[in-house]
């Protein structure tokens, strides 16, 4: 398959190397130019540069900048909203990874809310990107246990990032043999929590605004908002 990766940081670079290892063609990547300190090159951008893969700065990916002939867009630790017109230009659309058992803990700080709410079990979900942020059909999902004393970095690096790579690999294998898994999320149990001190996700080409019917904000999140 011909795959375009939108992401950042180590997870984006790990997904880049996974796609290479599986023998797919990487049509390009979109990422920030530098890491959060502004001093070092973003790891996904660096991986693309070493491989000679075209790079586009975050915020510029749209239906006009996506290369021709892309089969799938992969969002790997991406904070970009990939709009409908852009997704429709890829043969299969776009898949993303979210570090929670969707539809629980939608939002940009799922791991921190998992720990803040004392969840004993969490997991990761590969899902089809849609107009509803973190609300698309599920392609692959699995769980992990949360241990006492784990912090967000421990849970992400030790469990949820490796799980994400395994789930993305499984989803790519499915697509490669003609299987497209799409399990709708159960809106009756969906929750959304706000970000810890970060601006809302920018959605430049979102056509319909507002929360989806049935989506609830958890009580703890409502108190913090």
Automatic annotation (TrEMBL):
* Superkingdom: Bacteria
- All copies of domain Formyl transferase N-terminal, residue ranges: 65-152
Molecular functions (GO terms): methionyl-tRNA formyltransferase activity
InterPro entries, alphabetized:
Formyl_transf_N (IPR002376), Formyl_transf_N_sf (IPR036477)
Task: Name the Pfam families for this protein.
Answer: Formyl_trans_N
Q: Which GO terms describe its cellular component?
A: cytosol
User: What's in the keyword line of the UniProt record?
Assistant: Transferase
Which PANTHER family does UniProt cross-reference here?
METHIONYL-TRNA FORMYLTRANSFERASE, METHIONYL-TRNA FORMYLTRANSFERASE, MITOCHONDRIAL
- State the name under which the record lists this protein: Methionyl-tRNA formyltransferase
């Amino acid at each position: 398959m011909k795959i375009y990766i939108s992401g950042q940081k180590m997870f984006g670079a790990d997904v880049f190397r996974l796609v290479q290892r599986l023998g797919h063609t990487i049509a390009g990547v979109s990422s920030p130019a530098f890491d959060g300190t502004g001093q070092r090159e973003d790891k996904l951008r660096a991986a693309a540069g070493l491989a000679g893969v075209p790079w586009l700065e975050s915020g510029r990916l749209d239906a006009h900048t996506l290369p021709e002939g892309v089969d799938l867009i992969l969002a790997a630790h991406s904070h970009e909203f990939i709009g409908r017109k852009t997704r429709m230009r890829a043969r299969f659309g776009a898949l993303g990874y979210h570090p929670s058992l969707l539809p629980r803990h939608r939002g940009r700080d799922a791991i921190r809310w998992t720990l803040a709410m004392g969840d004993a079990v969490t997991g990761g979900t590969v899902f089809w990107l849609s107009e509803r942020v973190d609300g698309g059909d599920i392609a692959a999902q699995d769980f992990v246990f949360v241990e006492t004393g784990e912090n967000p970095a421990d849970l992400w690096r030790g469990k949820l990032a490796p799980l994400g790579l395994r789930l993305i690999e499984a989803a790519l294998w499915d697509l490669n043999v003609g299987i497209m898994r799409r399990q709708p999320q159960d809106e009756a149990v969906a929750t959304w929590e706000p970000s810890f001190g970060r601006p809302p996700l920018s959605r430049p080409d979102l056509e319909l605004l507002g929360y989806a019917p049935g989506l609830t904000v958890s009580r703890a999140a409502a108190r913090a908002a």
